[in-house]
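Example record used in the benchmark description.
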Amino acid sequence: MAVVAFLSCFVVFGVTYSFGAFFKPMAAEFGSSRAHTSIIFSLTAAIYSVLGLIAGRLTDRFGPRRVILVGAFALGAGLIATSFARSLAVAYLTYGVGVGIGAACGYVPMLAVVGGWFERRRNAAMGVAVSGIGAGTLAVAPLAAAMIHRFGWRVSYALIGVAGGLILALCGMLATAPPISSNAAPRPIAHLVRSPEFAILYFSALLASVTIYVPFVYLPDFAQSRGIGDVPAAALVGFIGAASMAGRLSFGSIADRIGILKLYKLSLLVMALSYAIWPRAHAYATFVLFTIVMGVAYGGMVSLSPTVVAELFGVEDLGTMLGALYTSSALSALAGPPLVGLAIDHVGSYLWAAAIAGSTGLLAFFVLVPLQTRMVESGTEQLGQGAGESASRGQS
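Model output (C-alpha cells):
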C-alpha cells in the first residue's frame, strides 16, 4: 500500500506543484497580473484542503477505492478542460475544481490507508508514501517546462491530464482498506477535533502552509527575473521535490530515535529559516542551496504530520482527522499566494515573498512549541491511548 500511495502522491502533487512552470505563459496569454494568476493555484490548494476532510470521511466509511477513482476522473477532466480555457476565470473553475478534487481524493485517502496498515513501521511507510510528493515534483515540473517549450501550455496540460488521470485510476483500483476499517458510523467530527492538541496543530499548519506554497508559485518567476532560463528555473521546483524526498525517507528513522514531535518542530523551524537564503539568490547555485534546505525540511515536516496525528489521536478515524487538519491550508492558500503577488506587483521586488514566507513559518514554529512541553507528555497518554489500542488491531 505504501507503493500505491507513493504513486498517487506522485501524480496529484506532481501536477499541482508544477504550476510554477505554467505560471508565466498563462499570465502572458491572459494578460493577467501575478496576483490574479496565482489565484489558480490558491483555489486549487484551498479546494483540496477543504475537500480532504470529506474525502477522508468517505474513506473511513466506505474505503478508498471509489473515492480515488472519483479523484482520477476529476483530475484528468479538469486539466483537459483547462487546456481549452479562453479566460482566466474559466481556468479558475476548470483547474481549481478539477485538480483540487483530484488532489483531495488522491492524497488523504491513501495516507489514511497506509496509516491503518502499518503500526511498528508506520514512520517508514509514511515516509515512502509521501516521498511520492517529492518525486512527482522532481519529475513533473521540469518535464512540464520542456513540454511547454515544445508544445505550448495548452497541449501540455491536455497530455498531463490524460496520463495523470489514468495513473491515478490505477491507484484507485489497487487501493485496499486496512483491516481496522469497518462499516460502523465514524465518530462525530466535533468529538475528534475539539482537543487543545488539535487546535495547536491546526493553527500551526495554517501558518506553515504559506511558507510551503510560496516557492511553488513564485520561485521559477523569481529565478527568471535574475536571468535564469525557463527550464532551469522550473527545475528549481523539481529540486525542492528531490530534497524533500531525502527528508521524507530519512526523517522517519530519525524520529524513532529523537521523538516525532521534536523532529516535527525542528523541520518547521529550518523550513522558515531557509528563506534567509532567498534574498542572496543571484547565482543559480544559491537558488539550488535554498531548494535543498527548504526541501529537506519541508519533506520531513510533511512526512511526520500524519504520524503525529496517528500518535495523538489513533488510526480508526485517521482519514477524518487528517482531512480536518488539512483544511487549515485552505485559508492560507486563498490569502497567501495572492497577497504575496500583490506585494511583488506593488513593490517590484521578490524579497517580499521571502519576508512573508519566512515570518509565517517562524510564527508557525512558535505556536507549536507548547505541544511538546505542555501537552505531549500528559496529553499523549490520554489521547494517544486510543491510538495504541486501535492500532494494535490488524496492523501489518
